[in-house]
Amino acid sequence: MTQHKRTKRRSPMTAVLAVILILAGVAAIADSLWMQENEISTGAEIYEALVEQLKQPHTTEEKPENQQDEQPAADTTTEEMPVTQDEPEQEQPVQEQPDQPADQIYEPAVTVVPPLTVQPTEPEQQILQLVNLPESPKEAAPGFTGADLAACKAANSDFAAWLQIPGTDIDYPVVLTNDVDYYLDHTFTGEESIIGCLFSLDRTDYAAPSDNIAIYGHHMRRSRSTTMFQPLHNYKKASFRNEHATIHLDTLHGSRSYTVFAVINKRESDWDASAADFASADEYQAFLDRALEWSLYDTGVSVTTDDHILTLITCDRDYNSEDGQLVVMAVQQ
Question: Which residues span the domain enclosing 106?
Fold first, then answer.
C-alpha cells in the first residue's frame, strides 16, 4: 500500500518534468529558427546595399567645397531669370553680359544634383560599412543589368558575372571559384552568412564561353525571404516561366540574354547538369535531349549544339529530402 502511494506521487512530477523538457526543446528550436531568419534578413540587406552601390556611377572627382552653399542660389537663378529681368535685358543673350561670368550661370546647373548615397540613413550606413566597396577604377558599360562590372571586379577578384532575372529578386553578382565551401556561407563581399553567394565552378569559361555556364545558389527553404535562388522554384509553374522567360547575364567579356527552355526536378546523383563543355557534338546533343525530356513542361523553345546555354541550379528538398535539385536551363538569344 505504501509503495503504491509513492508511485502515484512520482507520476505527476514525471509528467511535469516531461512537459518542461518539451517546452525547452521547442524554445531552442524557435530560437534557432529566429536566429536563422535574422541572418537571412541581414544578408539580404547586405546584397540590397551592394546592388545600390554597384549599379551607381563611380567617380573619383571631388565635389567643390562651396557647391552645397551655391546650390540653392543656382536653382533660384536658373528658375527665376526669365521672370525678374527687365524687358530690355531679356532681349540680350545671357552669355553677352560682361558682368556675369559664365561659370556662375552654368557650372551650378551641372552639379546641382548630389549623388544618391551622400547622406544614407543610419541603417543604410551600417550596411554600407559592411559592404565597404573600393571605388571603381573606371566606368564600365552598363550592359543589360546596369551593374558596374569594373567596380564588381575591384570589390572581389573572383567576380565573373552579374545575373538578373527581370521581374524577380534575382539580381546578384556571380563568382568563379574552386573554393565552393567558402562561398556557401560567405557573401560576395566576404561577410559570413548562410545565404552565401552565387558561384560557378572554375571549369566554367566565361570568355569563350563554355557550351554551358552553370551557376549555383542557395534556396532558403524555411524562410519567407526571396533571397538568392529561392524565386527559381516559381518556374515549376509554366505560367511563371512564360512571364519570366528572359534571363540577363553581364560578364567581363560581354553581355548576353537567354530564354528559358527547360525546368527540371532531379536528384544530384541522377545527372550532372553543370557540365561545361563536351567532347563532341553527339555528347552535347545527348545532354540537351535529356534536358528537354526531363523538363516539367514543354516550353516550345528549340535548342541545338550550335547554341550556348545557361543553367541555374539550387536545392529542392521538397522533391527529395537528401539531394533534390531544381534546374532552370536557358538558351542564348
Answer: 67-111
